[in-house]
Amino acid sequence: METILLDDSEADLLKAAEIIKNGGIVGIPTETVYGLGADASDPDAVEKIFTAKGRPADNPLIVHLADFSDAEKYTSAIPELAKKIADKFCPGPLTIVLPKNDRIPSITSGGLDTVGIRIPSHKTMHRIIELSGCPIAAPSANTSGLPSPTSAEHVMDDMSGKINAVVDGGQSEFGVESTVIAIENETSVRILRPGCITREMLLELCDDVIIDPAILHDLEAGQTAASPGMKYKHYSPSADVIMVEGSIEEFTAYVEKFNAPCVCSLIYDEDEEYFPYRYMTYGSSSSEQAHWLFQRLRELDELGVKKVFVRAPSLDGVGLAVYNRLIRAAGFEVIRL
Ligand code: TXA
Ligand code: MG
Question: Which residue did the predictor score with more confidence, 231 or 184?
Answer without folding.
Answer: 184
